TrEMBL record:
The lineage of its organism: Eukaryota, Viridiplantae, Streptophyta, Embryophyta, Tracheophyta. Its EC number is 2.7.4.14. Pfam families: ADK. Consists of three domains, a large central CORE domain and two small peripheral domains, NMPbind and LID, which undergo movements during catalysis. The LID domain closes over the site of phosphoryl transfer upon ATP binding. Assembling and dissambling the active center during each catalytic cycle provides an effective means to prevent ATP hydrolysis. Belongs to the adenylate kinase family. UMP-CMP kinase subfamily. Binds 1 Mg(2+) ion per monomer. Catalyzes the phosphorylation of pyrimidine nucleoside monophosphates at the expense of ATP. Plays an important role in de novo pyrimidine nucleotide biosynthesis. Has preference for UMP and CMP as phosphate acceptors. CMP binds at residue 143. Monomer. SUPFAM superfamilies: P-loop containing nucleoside triphosphate hydrolases (SSF52540). It comes from the Eukaryota. ATP binds at residues 62-67, 175, 218. This is UMP-CMP kinase. It is found in: Cytoplasm; Nucleus.
Amino acid sequence: MWRRVASLSSSISSYSTSFVAQTASRLNTWESLTTGIAQQAKGFIAPKEKTPFITFVLGGPGSGKGTQCVKIVETFGFTHLSAGDLLRREIASDSADGAMILNTIREGKIVPSQVTVRLIQKEMESSDNDKFIIDGFPRTEENRVSFEQFIGVEPKVVLFFDCPEEEMVKRLLNRNQGRVDDNLETIKTRLKVFEALSLPVINYYSQRGNLYTIRAKGTEDEIFEQVRPIFTTFDVCQRAVE
Ligand SMILES: Nc1ncnc2c1ncn2[C@@H]1O[C@H](COP(=O)(O)OP(=O)(O)OP(=O)(O)O)[C@@H](O)[C@H]1O
Ligand SMILES: O=c1ccn([C@@H]2O[C@H](COP(=O)(O)O)[C@@H](O)[C@H]2O)c(=O)[nH]1
Ligand SMILES: [Mg+2]
């Protein structure tokens, strides 16, 4: 199991952002408890500090992020964390934030960072894996900064599924999964939000040098053949392939 030295989940809701941010930066360390505690007790080596391998998957609505994440998980052994799915799970579980999240998704707008980051953090902490593919996040610069402050890890890989707008609209209107946001009015807002708030995040990672742009039109397999070589270059991704 991966966890931070101290959990910030409860702090996020009860303290001011600046306090939490300061605390977060002081606790910017990860440790492996499962191996660490047992080995210490037997007099083995000290717990190994290890940073999780994080991939962010970005792209407009309907660009095929979720579809490609399934293939990446199968091939390279990542744990898939879809920010949208985590938010929809909150709605379904009748949580305190459920109504606010539902309204925000229905309008095609963005849920406050602290809510989304807390959900992602919880999933990461309860996972045995050290490779996470985070789908549909960060959607704004504020999301990005918030993740870096609270989780304290930068992504190794950022995938951008670059898809023509008319193709995305066509896919969404044919998706048929009963999503409240798959209607033309909300899709128009989601496209505007993507351009205004998400493109700056993509530009940020482009400048950092860890952005990989995928031409996201074509068959699912053709698109995955652009994705595959990006991961095969990383040692940590070889384990799942062997
Ligand atoms: N290469 C493709 N060609 C045609 N249809 C596709 C392709 N990839 C995905 N689809 C279909 O398009 C729809 C949207 O795909 P998907 O849900 O993966 O997109 P997304 O980027 O995760 O969208 P959202 O941001 O709304 O969650 C789905 O019905 C999916 O089956
Ligand atoms: O980080 C996030 C991710 C998602 N949202 C909201 O959810 C919907 C649907 O997300 P998908 O990734 O398309 O499943 C999105 O339009 C936002 O309203 C969010 O606020 N923050
Ligand atoms: Mg999706």
